[in-house]
Amino acid sequence: KAGVTQTPRYLIKTRGQQVTLSCSPISGHRSVSWYQQTPGQGLQFLFEYFSETQRNKGNFPGRFSGRQFSNSRSEMNVSTLELGDSALYLCASSLVEGGPVYGYTFGSGTRLTVV
Amino acid sequence: AQSVAQPEDQVNVAEGNPLTVKCTYSVSGNPYLFWYVQYPNRGLQFLLKYITGDNLVKGSYGFEAEFNKSQTSFHLKKPSALVSDSALYFCAVRDNSNNDMRFGAGTRLTVKP
Question: Are B24 and B5 in contact (CB under 8 A)?
Fold first, then answer.
């Protein structure tokens, strides 16, 4: 079966712009989580969605937002981009909300570069 | 709050030698513990997990990890390293009291021929 699909793979944006990233989870998976990965901060949790509701949120400013659609696909949006938002954004899906017994399945990520 | 620490930024081993990548954790309640591997320009791949039961967990690609409750550790091991094992390895802990998942900073494993 298809894995977690993230689009686009690479993105270059200018400071001040906004960006929308997309994640399609594994078929049947209803939970989608987003992480930001940077060399300095490592992997940091952004938020988790389940059944179109945000269930958990990390410590990021309000410029970072997301949503989940009825087909479990998720988007995250970053407004007013800053240079420090340059990172690899990873999406992870799991079958159930919260404690995933089998762990997440990650997508390959979207590499965002803000110039 | 739960946390996970990977004390080594870098681990170097020779091909054919055993490898260990260290991880310690701090959680309230019973932890769910995971190891993931990341190859260049790719997302994370699940290697193995500890939920309950046998303290020695076997996972993908010949890796295993030992859960040690008294030392709050979950070290990743492999008896004989391959050059293709060279990658970034992440330990993660899920605190099931609040559903948070925290990742360690990662350890870069380099296996030399």
Answer: yes
Cβ contacts (< 8 Å) between A43 and chain B: which residues? 90, 103, 106
Q: Check CB contact of B59 with chain A, cutoff 8 Å.
A: no
Task: Write the DSSP string, chain A.
Answer: ----EEE-SEEEE-TT--EEEEEEPPTT--EEEEEEEETTTEEEEEEEEETTEEEEE-S--TTEEEEE-TTS-EEEEE-S--GGG-EEEEEEEESSSSS-TT--EE---EEEEE-
What pLDDT, in 10s, does the model give residues A47-63?
899 999 998 888 899 99
**How far is the C-alpha of A91 from the C-alpha of A76, rounded, in Å?**
10
Q: Tokens standing for B50? A: 């500890």
CB contact under 8 A, A102 and B94: no
Mutate which: A104, A105, A112, vs B, most B CBs within 10 A: A104
- Is A100 an interface residue toward B (CB < 8 Å)? yes
At A99 the three-state DSSP class reads coil
Over residues A55-79, the mean pLDDT reads 94
Q: Where are the alpha helices (DSSP H) in A35-112?
A: none
Of A1-10, A13-22, B12-21, B82-91, the range with the lowest mean pLDDT is A1-10
